Amino acid sequence: MCRLFGMSSAPRRSRATFWLLDAPDNLSDQSRREPDGTGLGYFTADGTPQVHKAPVAAFQDRAFAEDAATVESATFLAHIRYASTGALRESNTHPFEMNGRLFAHNGVIEDLDRLDAHLGADRSLVKGDTDSERFFALVTRETTAHGGDVTAGIVAAARWTARHLPLYALNIVLATSDQLWALRYPDTHELHVLERRPGGHHGNRQLDHAGAAGRMRVHSGDLARTPATVVASERMDDNPHWLLMEPGELLHVGPDRAVTRRIVLPQEPAHRLTLADLHPTAAASQQAA
Predict the structure, then answer these.
(1) What sequence ranges are listed for the domain Glutamine amidotransferase type-2 (predicted)?
(2) Per-residue pLDDT of the chain (289 residues; tens, 9 = 90+)
(3) Closest Cα partner for 216 from 31, 95, 39?
(4) Residue ranges of domains in the chain
(5) Do residues 174 and 96 make contact, with C-beta atoms less than 8 angstroms apart?
(6) Residue 196's closest CA among 23, 16, 2?
(7) Which of 32, 70, 144, 234 is deepest in the core (most CB within 10 A)?
(8) Beta bridge partners of 98
């Protein structure tokens, strides 16, 4: 199953080190659990998005995924991909960038021909062939149509998708240089949020998250002194304040650290898919590692 991680310490910038894969497993485990892509997105001091990603597959070069990248940003987005749609190449690896925003997705959306038709000329925003990037293009279009309101753009795109397309899961994280959004829909996969005070639960600790299932580790000494909001596919430490997002819930972290949460999709998808409905490759990508 793809793994998502988003973090905001806005308005303060913080330094963080990401390991997008843990230490190597034995060879037999690698063949079953090796991801199909890893990616890290963040923003420079002037707000320019930066994306480092590679289509890492079984038995291929692990150097990109194992190297620690130390970067500074007010917001971060990391993703480990298990492919459901699209070939193993960089253009299909998350996170994606459009109009200065970064985006990553965990789930499956089907009937992409209908989505392409709905996108029309905005299909040109899509550089790869994933369902995820197509949905991001829809969010981008709807955001523009709503005067640059990203929240409204996400809600409009997600509601149209829920009404019209076969859907297994639509867990997303979207980041700008000073804001973060996350959506969990429906209840297929978990998505957790932690409003972390400086020093964490114990008051004097740096951030040191390690996701056992997601094979992702994040370290930030700066967060011993700085508050942050973290969104992740799994609880990544023993802090008791992790909260499971509700199905249909949209989270927004503003540039002033204000966190808002509300249910924007109270109804089930009109065409909800099960694992049995998916192509075997897509079904395998959606099961827990």
Answers:
(1) 2-256
(2) 567 889 999 999 988 887 665 544 333 343 345 566 778 899 999 999 998 876 654 445 455 555 556 789 999 998 876 655 555 566 677 799 999 999 999 899 999 999 999 999 999 999 998 899 999 999 999 999 999 999 999 999 999 999 999 999 999 999 999 999 999 999 999 999 999 887 666 656 776 766 655 466 777 777 788 889 999 888 877 788 999 999 999 999 999 989 999 999 999 999 999 888 877 666 655 656 5
(3) 39
(4) 3-285
(5) no
(6) 16
(7) 234
(8) 101
Which residues on adjacent β-strands are paired with residue 145?
none
DSSP 115-154: HHHHHGGGGGG--S--HHHHHHHHHHHHHHHTTT-HHHHH
Instruction: Pick one of 1.20.58.100, 3.30.1360.40, 3.60.20.10, 1.20.120.1460 as the CATH number of 3-285.
Output: 3.60.20.10
d(Cα 184, Cα 178) in Å, to the nearest integer?
21
**How far apart, in whole angstroms, are the C-alpha atoms of residue 15 and residue 13?**
7
Stretch (H or E) spanning 157: helix 150-164
Q: Which amino acid is residue 14, in one-letter code?
A: S
Q: Are 174 and 181 in contact (CB under 8 A)?
A: yes
pTM (2 d.p.): 0.87
197 token code pair: 């005070």
